[in-house]
Amino acid sequence: MSFNPETRRLSIGLDNGTISEFILSEDYNKMTSVKNYQAHQSRVTMVLFVLELEWVLSTGQDKQFAWHCSESGQRLGGYRTSAVASGLQFDVETRHVFIGDHSGQVTILKLEQENCMLVTSFRGHTGGVTALCWDPVQRVLFSGSSDHSVIMWDIGGRKGTAIELQGHNDKVQALSYAQHTRQLISCGGDGGIVVWNMDVERQETPEWLDSDSCQKCDQPFFWNFKQMWDSKKIGLRQHHCRKCGKAVCGKCSSKRSSIPLMGFEFEVRVCDSCHEAITDEERAPTATFHDSKHNIVHVHFDATRGWLLTSGTDKVIKLWDMTPVVS
Question: Which spans of this chain does UniProt mark as WD repeats (predicted)?
Fold first, then answer.
């Protein structure tokens, strides 16, 4: 569903591919049917109404993205995605649409009145994209995934910067962004509500380096038969330090540490030298954690009141006062 409070227009995507549009009465006690859009061949997965352009954007299980004119009901164009879409965001100023799908890919399209152009596509998740959230001021895109992570993509910076945020123990189900405080709210299947401070200078996680032996003690890894034979040593299992990215053995990476500025709010594997170099200030958390006590499937944040609404698989709707933490 997509609801516009200014016009009280409610757009609902249906299982048969139709989008039904209603106008709600001022007292919210009556719904008047306005029109239907024959948008997709199968179930509608996402729908978004854009008041400024009078467009209705949608994606479906038919792997199609489509947009319609809400005044005439006419289909303006479409684009076939690589997988079923599960996230949809739109930037009014530049007319860019962001589509996240079940394969983990994010696609950016530039929309005109009756055609669209592929700008780029990228992937950083090991699981499917489950939620997207766009900040039009800082021009960054947040994507949540079934791989338990959130990635912040710096679209406006044009440098390809991607910052990982690891704070959930289950798939990320929903994202919302408080622009006035630069805080991201992520909710997951683990019942966790995480409030991330995005007003700090975060660091990209390093690329994992490849090596046939430990880059600290030079012990061979188990597939390096030549060095194992020459040194008469048993091969070891390879690990990676989350701070420097070096390939290390278990003995040289026995320590654990949180690295919040790299998005690791939980303790992760680091090599011994990096563990010694990380200061207490660098371990200071940049997120707060809250237990919703239900598996969240949908979230809506009202920035004016500081209220967060969550609904879960337990068929319960909860309303949270977020003013103590989102401020």
Answer: 122-155, 165-206, 289-322
Give 46's strand partners: 59
Question: What tokens were used for 189?
Answer: 């299947």
> Which two tokens mark 2?
């997509």
Q: What is the largest CA-CA distance in the chain?
A: 82
Domain layout of the chain by residue ranges: 124-202+288-326, 225-283
Q: Is the dihedral of CA 256, 258, 263, 265 positive or negative?
A: positive
Task: Name the token pair of 114.
Answer: 């009756």
**Span 12-22, pLDDT tens digits:** 999 999 999 99
The CATH homologous superfamily for domain 225-283 is Zinc/RING finger domain, C3HC4 (zinc finger) (3.30.40.10)
- CATH level 3 topology of 124-202+288-326: Methylamine Dehydrogenase; Chain H (2.130.10)
pLDDT of residue 212: 87
Report yes or no: 229 and 240 within 8 Å, Cβ to Cβ. no
Half-sphere exposure of 236 (CA within 13 A, CB side): 22
pLDDT in tens, 121-177: 998 899 999 999 999 998 999 999 999 999 999 887 666 688 889 999 999 999 999
Compute the half-sphere exposure of residue 10: CA atoms within 13 Å on the CB side of its CA: 13
* Helix, strand, coil percent values for the chain (each to nearest 5): 5, 50, 45
Output the CA torsion sign for 210, 215, 221, 223.
positive
- Alpha-carbon distance of 249 to 138, in angstroms, equals 40
Torsion of CA 161, 162, 163, 165, to 10 degrees: 170
pLDDT tens string 272-306:
999 998 888 888 888 999 999 999 988 999 988 99
Side chain identity at residue 112, one-letter code: E
d(CA 225, CA 281): 43
Over residues 203-217, mean pLDDT: 86
Select the more confidently predicted residue: 227 or 176: 176
CA 285 vs CA 175, 213, 259, 266: distances in Å: 20, 34, 8, 9
